[in-house]
Amino acid sequence: MTSTAVIDVERLNLKYGDFHAVKDLSFQVRRGEFYALLGTNGAGKTSTLETIEGHRAATSGSVRVLGRSPMDRAAVRPKMGIMLQESGFAPDLTVRESVRLIGALTRRQDRVERVLSVVDLTRKAGTKVSQLSGGEKRRLDFATAVWGTPELVFLDEPTTGLDIQSRDALWDAVDKLREDGSTIVLTTHYLEEAQQRADRIGLMHRGAFHQEGTVAELTQTLPAVIEFGVAGAVPALPLQARRSAEGKVVIETHQLQKDLFVLLRWAQDNAVELRELEAGATSLDEVFRAIDN
Ligand SMILES: Nc1ncnc2c1ncn2[C@@H]1O[C@H](COP(=O)(O)OP(=O)(O)OP(=O)(O)O)[C@@H](O)[C@H]1O
């Protein structure tokens, strides 16, 4: 393991009876990195993360977290903040009591009022968990990742059910965790969130990596896209194009800058207005769509 690896997975295999859910998976997450573990349904993300978090034993292979076995819970667990999809706080506890409980369980030091403020639940501090809205419950789940600024933070679908203000606030808080040195592991089906923030992405399919790398490395395997709308008839385009389902003109290219220049000159020469012009690397959505099921 390199000295900066916070998570080191070597040839991990997980089997459920005869079913081979994770196959010889190897990857590392470096200190301070934002790593997104993404994948198709049933790819093995949850199984892999549960092993790293110490909830599940590997069938074979080695997993090291912060230099130790994840089964060494007394040493490793206090350094990890895990925001599950459903934390299952007791419905009869108040928000303040729940946050205090997080503190007692993690044994990290922090202040209840600070964490309530970060997850924007100060005004709900005296409210029972059973009376929180879905988004408020999700923000309370997020408190488990914030309390005591853990060295390693796992975020499992963190923004599900959050409105745009709460999502922005959550990502601001994650940025703050990173500034304070936390390593972040995200899993989500909202690919745009990973595309905007992840340093590296592990893209799983059927128990193994389909691809692993930076967003640029993943997206550069597919052509870049130029897209625009036009009103009425247009002169013949100097580039190969197709129409999208919404009637927009779509040009796929491996030489974005050159073809964009050709297009803009053509539009200028022919007095064509390019409406809602967009040009750039393809999205992670397309990388996913290209996976052969
Ligand atoms: N306890 C279990 N017993 C048998 N098979 C299981 C068990 N848990 C998971 N699996 C299977 O292992 C595979 C991987 O499941 P896992 O939950 O790790 O996938 P995932 O990538 O998290 O999927 P999703 O995106 O759909 O949540 C799936 O085919 C699933 O049906």
Automatic annotation (TrEMBL):
Q: Where in the cell is it found?
A: Cell membrane
Q: Name one GO biological process term.
A: response to antibiotic
Q: Which Pfam families match?
A: ABC_tran (PF00005)
Under the heading PROSITE patterns, the entry gives:
ABC_TRANSPORTER_1, ABC_TRANSPORTER_2
| One GO CC term, this protein | plasma membrane
Question: Sorted alphabetically, which InterPro entries does this protein's record hold?
Answer: AAA+_ATPase, ABC_transporter-like_ATP-bd, ABC_transporter-like_CS, ABC_transporter_ATP-binding, P-loop_NTPase
Q: What are the UniProt keywords, alphabetically?
A: Antibiotic resistance, ATP-binding, Nucleotide-binding, Transport
Select a single GO molecular function from the record's annotations and give it: ATP binding
Where the record annotates domain ABC transporter, the positions are 7-231
Superkingdom assignment: Bacteria
Q: How is it placed in the membrane, per its record?
A: Peripheral membrane protein
Q: What protein does this entry describe?
A: ABC transporter ATP-binding protein
